[in-house]
Amino acid sequence: MNLLANLINGLSLGAVYAIIALGYTMVYGIAKMLNFAHGDVIMVGGYVCFCTMSYLHMPAPAGVLFAVIVCTVLGIVIEKLAYKPLRQATSLAVLITAIGVSYFLQNAALLIWKSDPKVFTSVVNIPAIRLFDGQLVISGVTVATIASSVIIMIALTIFTGKTKVGKAMRAVSEDKGAAQLMGINVNSTISVTFAIGSGLAAIAGVLLCSAYPTLMPTTGSMPGIKAFTAAVFGGIGSIPGAMLGGLLLGVIEIFAKAYISTQLSDAIVFAVLIIVLLIKPTGLLGKAIHEKV
Amino acid sequence: MKRNFAKIAAAVMAGAMALSLAACGGSSSSSGSSSAETKAAAETEGGSGEVFKIGGIGPTTGAAAIYGTACKNAAEIAVEEINALGGVQFELNFQDDEHDAEKSVNAYNKLKDWGMQILVGTTTTTPCVAVSTESNADRIFEITPSASSTDVIGGVADADGNVNIPRKDNVFQMCFTDPNQGIASAQYISENQLGSKIAIIYNNSDAYSTGIYNKFVAEAADRNLEIVYTGTFTDDNATDFSVQLGDAHNSGADLLFLPIYYTPASQILVQAEAKGYDFKYFGVDGMDGILTLEGFDTSLAEGVMLLTPFAADAQDDLTKNFVAKYQEKFGADQVPNQFAADTYDCIYAIYNAIQAKGLTPDMSNEELCSALIETFTSSDFSYSGLTGENMTWSESGEVSKDPKANVIQDGAYVGM
Question: CA B318: distance to chain centroid?
């Protein structure tokens, strides 16, 4: 029973990681860059939703919608201002810029919303499921998070596989130069990728804050790092991989906490990542692509 | 290419984590100085011999500004009241330190130039450790309202029995030390039989939380309190408490002791509610502030007990008078917190000691310092104020007073 309860706790944490990791992997898969500011876009999404609900007294769906809109625009702006000028630069330069953007967003949030933590009211109204006389409780947020991440995973897979824009994205990810020669607008394709990734970040932010209600300017950084780990774990660039990686990471973290040590859980999580990368460098579901010279 | 990229990414990740850790350690502070006060101070330099010159130091700007501002406001009220009585006269000069040790020592030096004879401060612990070393060398009597670490007073052995900082005999505290909060909590729980099976969740990456926890466990063992579960978390790991709460629940605990700050405590309350766990909660002074957390559903804190020396809605005359004056002077929406109450008590304790010994303002720092040390540590000196009855001080500099516990009812503190 205890094992089952911990498994559910793990899945509920993992679902949050999975939903963040989907955004990470989407941007990496297409633009071939790690957007470290992703975690902070999540935090902005959380704050925007909080402000819409607490200050403007709008209902929860309006808060979520508004957060998605703001984050989508923010994603496009960040891409245009910070990443586009570096399109030809080395990937290391882009990475460092992403870290800069991450710090910029955190400190801007500190200026706007101050350092006092805010407590987020859950947007999910599904009642908790109680099994075995209340010994096993699955909260409504968990159900909503798992459902959302499955829906998003399926939607993204269909989108990149079937639609015209999706096909353009895959073309850009395989070879930017050749895609351009085929008449694909590389810049606008990458912008759309960022827009989708940031919109997903807003949803992730709202669900993260619904599950763990403290909202601070640094709220997104640790889950962001964990979700990046999850994406690498599952095979970065692979959409089902991000989902699998996120869920596994959550379960490993909770099991490490419950059965090994509450202090060492993070260390164990990262140790597992290292082992997986040593055995299977592309991650669980990642495909090895051979570079042609 | 992909493999190389992953390696680069891993290296950058490590860098980013190190950076974010460093960022956590640094204190953010805004610049700001009280030049007006300094100018006024410079004019009266030299010690008039008519009034006692009381210096105050605390953060009135920056991240911890609410603490220092509360101290400054309360000190002003106390000094005004005392001066209105006639007799012994005080002059107050309160300096900002932005919760920064270096700025605090600068503020201290500024006050020394002004002719400070007695120091009430500093408000926060880290600056106070630095300033108290200076005041000890200069023989200026110092009493801090709220710097609760034992490093402030010195002379207290750590867990291994080593005394790392020698006792600074001129430094006294108005607040409980961190370890004493642990002892007081165990006493309170056992004397009032609040719980038979106790679970504890504490932050073992934080000195404050760990200090209280260690003493609590030692005292609980002496009092035969049964601790059925101990859970830990760290600053980086303070979001998901499902494992700790689940284990506490499974261990059959009825009371959950939380020697932590109010932000993680609010997470614990929310998550326990979502899981349908029903604990009684007992916190320490770090829990103070949970009701002012923006967006927090205060009904979740209903019945939470906390050990805090002061409740603004207590119904005794002293508190009512203090709160009324505070709101009259600083605005009706301002509610004095424990920092304000502790500072008010500091000024009055000094006033009582001066009266008891018949000290005069023309005495030198050294004479005042040794006379006040003697008075504070003498067995017949005690002080009753906002934060406790019959407080006494030992030579260790720690205050001895009965702990006051409050319970949250209808979104407000009510004395227990």
Answer: 21
Confidence of residue A283 (pLDDT cuts 50, 70, 90): confident
Report d(CA A45, CA A16) in Å as an integer: 14
How far, CA to CA in Å, does B127 sit from each of B58, B108, B141, B262, B325?
9, 10, 16, 22, 29
CA distance B306 to A37: 39
Chain B contact present for A159, CB below 8 A: no
Angstroms from A264 CA to nearest CA on chain B: 10
B240: nearest CB among A212, A216, A263:
A212
Entry pTM: 0.73
Domains of chain B: 35-176+340-400 (3.40.50.2300), 179-308 (3.40.50.2300)
Query: Alpha-carbon distance A46 to A66, whole Å?
Result: 11
Report pLDDT digits (tens) over B26-41.
333 333 444 444 434 4
Q: A54 CB near a chain B CB, below 8 Å?
A: yes
Cβ contacts of A252 within 8 Å, gap of 6 or more:
A10, A268, A269, A272
Q: Alpha-carbon distance A231 to A176, whole Å?
A: 23
Q: How many CB pairs under 8 A join A and B?
A: 122
Contact B237 A110 (CB under 8 A): no
Residue A102 with chain B: CB contacts under 8 Å: 16
Which segments in chain B show pLDDT lower than 50?
A: 1-2, 19-48
- Å from B233 to nearest chain A CA? 6
ipTM of the complex: 0.78
User: Which of A110, A212, A277 lies nearest to residue B239, judging by beta carbons?
Assistant: A212
**B163 token code pair:** 């005394």
Between chains, do B244 and A92 touch, taking CB under 8 Å as contact?
no
